[in-house]
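Example 9 (inverse folding). The structure is encoded as follows.
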């Protein structure tokens, strides 16, 4: 039998391997392995920072002082008085956090359901609850999306039940200093 004719016979295993190699060359960008390793390290580091901050928050610590960049841009999506974009920690705390936190008799305690990371983005899905100054329970569901830079949150987007937030603000007196 002619050796050239034998080598030209259809070999399904060789064809599949060739097709997979071709797909890998066409679909995976050059340097993907190195970039993915670097992104994996950044993702793991950012996720660890956020997990640690939420663990600290759950234990009664102040996560914002350590986690948020001073020039943070925080956007609360939705409609209502608190929806909008806040520039800097002071703006965010005074106009978005303080109105609800000042009406809580107990600290807001998070219960993290999941944290996802992709590149410089971290997504946190959590619930949080507390008791208001009138003694009523407050609970809300949140999704926060952070963009991290050098271990700090520089941009944040928040999704939550703004009606529940507003009920606390409207129906409870602020704590006295």
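The amino acid assigned to each position is listed next.
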């Amino acid at each position: 039998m002619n050796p050239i004719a034998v080598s030209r016979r259809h070999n399904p295993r060789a064809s599949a391997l060739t097709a997979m190699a071709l797909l890998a060359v066409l679909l995976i960008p050059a340097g993907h392995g190195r970039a993915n390793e670097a992104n994996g390290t950044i993702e793991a580091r950012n996720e660890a920072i956020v997990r640690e901050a939420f663990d600290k928050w759950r234990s009664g610590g102040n996560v914002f002082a350590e986690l948020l960049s001073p020039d943070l841009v925080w956007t609360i999506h939705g409609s209502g008085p608190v929806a909008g974009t806040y520039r800097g920690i002071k703006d965010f705390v005074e106009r978005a956090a303080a109105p609800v936190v000042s009406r809580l008799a107990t600290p807001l305690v998070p219960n993290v359901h999941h944290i996802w990371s992709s590149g410089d983005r971290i997504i946190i899905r959590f619930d949080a609850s507390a008791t208001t100054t009138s003694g009523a329970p407050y609970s809300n569901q949140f999704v926060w999306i952070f963009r991290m830079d050098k271990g700090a949150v520089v941009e944040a987007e928040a999704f939550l039940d703004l009606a529940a937030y507003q009920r606390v603000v409207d129906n409870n007196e602020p704590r006295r200093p």
